[in-house]
Design brief:
The protein has 492 residues and is an alpha/beta fold. It has 16 helices and eight strands. α4 packs across α6 and α4 crosses α9. The longest helix is centred in the first third of the chain and has 34 residues. This is Guanine nucleotide binding protein, alpha subunit. It comes from Hygrophoropsis aurantiaca.
């Protein structure tokens, strides 16, 4: 009976790829065989290490995983930084040079928003003398009445023109190679206010979380000895091309601009509040523009740089804090909050111990950057409803951070009424205590309606406040440990 084994065609591409080169000499053959044996040794070692890690993970304590969720600019990245500081007090020690450049970019962009607003106001009041065309108002209300700019305002604006080159240089360093020129040209042609409010048509400066963007700003020295040094030791303060040189030269003018009553009035008319934006440093210009400025940990917490992709932070809990069957290995994941990125959340739902959901309750009078027809607070409420009702998360602890309480308090104290934007709030007192409790009850009601068996963990937070946030995160970690122990039937 003939064999049913299928014959391998003579022109099989795999056979050709594995065949030795034609006319191979004995020496070449020996070299080739040695290389193949070395490649196999490395491959076997990798397989062995993977298997060892897999076995160790099965036998050892399982890692505790925490996912940070919330809309864009809700405070997720700042919360992740707080986790880093809490568990590694020197976490930013080698990153200060990098964050210095980010903070410089934040300062320049904030100033340019004001300069662009001044140009708009001048074009509106002096259309014939301005090179910027006056755009008709799209608002259905009455035309805006801008205060007139003086000659001194225009001189001040001109003296700050060098900041344009500083911004361009910093953005050029941030953008990934290959797309920098195109993206930079598109961004620099936008009005500054539009650059700071990204949409699918208006890209914001962003970096890939997996990229080594931090190294772009530091004058790093090779060798492991430098790894333990403060990165401020690596800043070349004497370099004439350092952006800090221009910022220091423009410092007095920037301080004068931010304190100017006419500028304050312009911002009020446009309902722009830079102090509520991430990356706000205009109240600290004298410090952050100093020639030898080095960022503090609080500065790094406040710095704004949008990252794409998933950022993961790993740390080990101190010995004795956890039960014997609860992993010392903790992992915190920060994922993008823009609407276009929310589909990427679902793959993380399967194996999370806890989700920290951040809802910025100060944004009751703001709209989504991606969709100006949607109120930001309403979007957070709908997102929370989606999370608490998701069947994939029914065994996951949910912790709610009602965030940016400091900004909410300031808004209410300034006379901005919550009831003007949240109709159901009615005529209740326009103070922080009443407003915050009202919003807490709204979020709690959704939890009770869609997941009544779960406890409601809620904290009022201002995640840029390191001290208070550290205490809250410690409580959250203890809660996660306690609930994991209960699930393991070790207590309770």
């Amino acid at each position: 009976m003939p064999s049913k084994r299928q014959r391998v065609p003579e022109d099989d591409p795999l056979t050709r790829a594995c065949a030795p080169p034609p006319n191979e000499t004995p020496t070449e053959r020996e070299i080739r065989i040695c290389a193949e044996q070395e490649a196999k040794r490395i491959s076997d070692a990798i397989d062995e290490e993977i298997n060892r890690q897999r076995i160790a993970e099965r036998k050892g304590p399982k890692a505790v995983k925490i996912l940070l969720l919330g809309q864009s600019e809700s405070g997720k990245s700042t919360t992740l930084k707080n986790f880093q500081l809490m568990n590694s007090p020197k976490a930013f020690r080698t990153e200060r040079a990098s964050w210095r450049a980010v903070i410089q970019l934040n300062v320049v962009q904030s100033i340019h928003i004001i300069l662009e607003l001044m140009s708009k106001a001048h074009a509106h009041t002096h259309p014939s003398s301005s090179s910027i065309p006056s755009r008709p108002s799209t608002s259905s209300g009455s035309p805006k009445e801008y205060p007139p700019l003086t000659a001194e305002h225009l001189k001040l604006k001109m003296r700050l023109a060098p900041l344009m080159q500083v911004e361009e240089a910093l953005i050029r360093k941030l953008l990934p190679p290959g797309v920098g020129a195109h993206a930079l040209a598109g961004m620099m042609n936008l009005p500054y206010a539009e650059r700071m409010h990204a949409s699918p048509q208006r890209p914001e400066v962003s970096v890939n979380s997996a990229g080594s963007w931090k190294g772009a700003f530091s004058r790093l020295i090779n060798g492991t000895a430098r790894q333990s040094c403060e990165s401020s030791d690596m800043i070349d303060f004497e370099n004439p091309e350092d952006p800090g040189v221009v910022l220091a030269a423009c410092a007095d003018d920037m301080i004068r601009l931010w304190a100017d009553p006419t500028v304050k009035k312009l911002l009020e008319i446009e309902k722009m509040r830079p102090e509520e934006m991430a990356g706000f440093f205009l109240d600290a210009l004298d410090r952050v523009t100093a020639p030898r400025y080095v960022p503090t940990d609080d500065d790094i917490l406040r710095a704004r740089l949008k990252t794409l992709g998933v950022t993961e932070y790993r740390f080990n809990m101190r010995s004795g804090t956890l039960g014997s069957n609860i992993g010392h290995d903790w992992r915190v994941f920060d994922v993008g909050g823009q609407r276009s990125l929310r589909a990427a959340w679902v793959p993380f739902f399967d194996d999370m111990n806890a989700i920290i959901f951040l809802a910025p309750i100060s944004c009751f009078d703001q709209v989504l950057q991606e969709d100006p027809s949607v109120n930001r607070l309403a979007d957070s409420v709908l997102l929370w409803k989606t999370i608490v009702s998701n069947p994939l998360l029914k065994k996951t602890d949910l912790v709610l951070f009602l965030n940016k309480c400091d900004i909410l308090r300031a808004k209410l104290n300034s006379g901005i009424r919550l009831g003007d934007y949240i109709v159901s709030y009615g005529s209740r007192p326009n103070d922080f205590e009443c407003a915050s409790q009202y919003l807490r009850k709204k979020f709690a009601a959704l939890m009770k309606e869609h997941s009544p068996e779960r406890p409601f963990y809620c904290h009022f937070t201002s995640v840029t406040d390191t001290k208070s946030t550290t205490l809250i995160l410690q409580n959250v970690q203890d809660m996660i440990v306690r609930d994991n122990l209960k699930r393991s039937a070790l207590v309770g």
